[in-house]
Amino acid sequence: MRKRIYLHPIQNLIIILLLITVVLPDSVKAQHELLSEGIPVLKKYDKEHLYRIAMPIGGIGTGTVSFGGSGEFRDWEIMNVPAKNYSTVTTGNDAPFFSIYTKKKDETPKSKALLGPIHFADYQHYEGRSVNHHGLPRFRNASFASTYPFGMVSLSDSTMPVKVKLLAYNPFIPGNADASGIPVAIIKYEVENISNETIDISISGNIRNFIGKDGSEYTSDWKGDYIPTGAKENKNAYRSGKNFSGIYMYSDGVDKASPAWGTMALTAPLEENGKVTYRTSSAQNEWGNALLDFWDDFAADGMLTEKTKLIDPDPMASLAVLKTLKAGEKKTFTFYLTWHFPNRFAWSKSNVGNYYATQYADAWNVIEKEIDRLPTLTQKTVDFVNAFMSSSYPDVIKEAALFNLSTLRSQTVFRTTDGKMFGWEGVMDRFGSCKGSCTHVWNYEQATPYLFNSLAKTMREVEFGYAMRETGHMGFRTNLPLVESGSGINVAAADGQMGTIMKFYREWQLSGDKDFLIKHWPKIKTALSYVWIENGWDGNQDGVMEGVQHNTMDVEYFGPNPQMQLWYLGALRAGEEMAMYMKDAAFAKKCRVLFQSGSKWTDENLFNGEYYIQKIQTPISKASIPKGQMAGMGSKQIDNPDYQLASGCLVDQLVGQYMAHVLGLGYLVKEENIKTTLQSILKYNKRETMYEHFNNMRSYAMGNEKALLMASWPKGGRPAIPFPYWSEVMTGFEYTAAIGMLYEGMQQEGIDVINNIRDRYDGQKRNPFDEAECGHHYARAMASWAAIIQQSGFGFSAVDKSITFTNKEGNYFWSNGSAWGMCTIVKTGKGYQANLSVNYGSIELKKITLGKELVKELKSPVIIKENQNVTFELPTGPRN
């Protein structure tokens, strides 16, 4: 039961008892089917929309294996590098898979791979196939459903006496980065006996010990096929733990300094009604005999006969569990795949390690430590999903926010041995894309700070503690190891540096960590003061960025433009707020004066009546440009620079305002101009199809797809050579426009933009768990979480001990990065009632606000702990 909180009656607090597990409202139950274990389905994919699905399963910073739409396990990215489309072999019947055996009394047994049908796209090949396990018997019907981090494949076949549901996931608990960072894939097969007889059923997991083969090194066979290499003297051993058993996989031959060196384990819990058998090897892998040898053994009686002789350098490990099911009975077969690969290099020449690897001795130790805890972590993950799903947000907003969280589990993100979080911009098929926790890309995302604030704080510590020089010049890419962070590429990006100041303000507000601010305040001041150096971004200190500004378009803008200018105005507002807290009146005043003058100038000079434009302004000479403000990727001429925006309508010209809204910093320029600009972005940048659109760069929208273009020039004046990505479509930028629309009351328009994005990632054309930009799992797309913040009206300050929500009736999931819960807003005869629950962590409050006017200030702070609930009454009328 939830605990009661007794408070002074003058505070008008009503205490309500609730069950610890979140109970879904009837309306939500009616709208959403259940996956399993009380988990509501957010999105379903039929057989026509399975081909591209690959849901990453693994912890934050651990690497992942992806769960495919037909039940396959693909993209084995557990060895510290990306490995798209890598299943330990490129072709053949040799990748990891699970299979099922069924036997009725006095009937011939039936066995199949636990996979759906092969997609037609994989039928054409010079050997008749291009997909793994092409020759295994499969189920005729498959579908996929998900509420991230849970994915489920349903398999059925009229020739089989069973239906199978496969649930795969990894614990995901906002506020608990360690519990969300376990190197495990939990795999559960729920088997239903649909016959009228008792059946023996066995499920076997099969995986070659591919330690050393991370997909990055290949040889070629006589056919020209690429065959991954690297395994050497790999060995498997059957082991038993206290309440589990399985195969431990290790290597005696792979270099222990290699990123591909480590251990794996495939285990199953010991159960009274389950019989475990195993094999630690197989027949020699030639002419397909290894698979034949396994299949003949398993298909005979559902049990495995051990083979101790290790022939191949990557021996197959097989683990089977046999159970008996009565007619109509359901039973679950659970497997755990764990891994431990300690050597990560990322963009460093030396080993920076993995935080998760410091928590466990090896892959066996992972399950040894966690198996008793996994049911609790699973339930807390279910609680999170249920709370989120019971919210009043439109489903497409839930989908965009939730599914993009998978990026936090991909190879885009990692944690070094000291626990600090770093990120690529995204990942290519075989290596990371664009190193250094790039500030101007990571500016956009809101998932990390609002779900794992402790991790976001480590990124700020790196930016201000390692990436910044004494002058205030902050490199927009951080080098590794951190002692080398001042070397290499060290260009300052105007948007990146200004965004970092706003992000620091956000992390401070969410955490309430005054020591965090006190420690870094001198450097924050220096970073903002860097804007004002001679001939710099705002060298004349008038609140306007006129200088040469390297930015997220990977070029330099010359002269004032809305994208950099609004980041600057936002940084001035954040700087003012932090200065006031630090009692630095002079600096606060300077920030305020520059903000006011810069805001006024922007409206008067850059707003053309419909949207904000760039006014190209060239420097006196190339020599006058401060060192480190040009990356060399933009214009070679400064008197008539290429790669500019000029009079164009930019999709994310209001990105600084987007950030200011999320942070509660108010309007940076005139409110009416913001609304008009968003309407113009829709008017000029939206395309109903891409058939008539010319694009000389990358295509992330094609054919009949709807999208917002990066830029348009409705009034003419397009530069002969615009900024590089002008003709593209990229989801992270689209989200900022869509969420800006939501903040300005353009609800349907904003939802439509988000819906158009998600329609492009429908499982058939693209992977719903991989919004790409310059690489897979692109960090910028996690801007989608800001739609949750906007829809709930959520704002939180641990500094002021205040919380804010919309005054619109509904149920709202909230999270501040260390705690999360629900807030239900109900209109009453006297005003509003806000029922606030904490499902994880705790918060301390002195004030609650609904909308802009309804404020409840408490006589003394109240601490709401985990599994506690408080109802606040907020009468309308005079402030109470």
Q: Could you characterize what this model shows?
A:
This protein is an alpha+beta fold. The protein folds into three domains: 9-22 and 793-875, no CATH class; 41-379, Beta-galactosidase, Chain A, domain 5, CATH 2.70.98; 391-792, Glycosyltransferase, CATH 1.50.10. The chain has 17 helices and 38 strands. The strands form eleven sheets. Strands 2-8-9-10-11-20-17-16-15 form a nine-stranded antiparallel beta sheet. Strands 1-38-35-34-33 form a five-stranded antiparallel beta sheet, with helices on both faces. The chain has a five-stranded antiparallel beta sheet with strand order 7-6-12-19-18, with helices on one face. The radius of gyration is 28 Å and the shape is globular. This is Glycosyl-hydrolase family 116 catalytic region domain-containing protein. One of its GO terms (biological process) is carbohydrate metabolic process. Residues 495-786 form the Glycosyl-hydrolase family 116 catalytic region domain.
TL;DR?
Pfam families: DUF608, Glyco_hydr_116N. The chain is α+β, with helices and mostly antiparallel strands and 880 residues long.
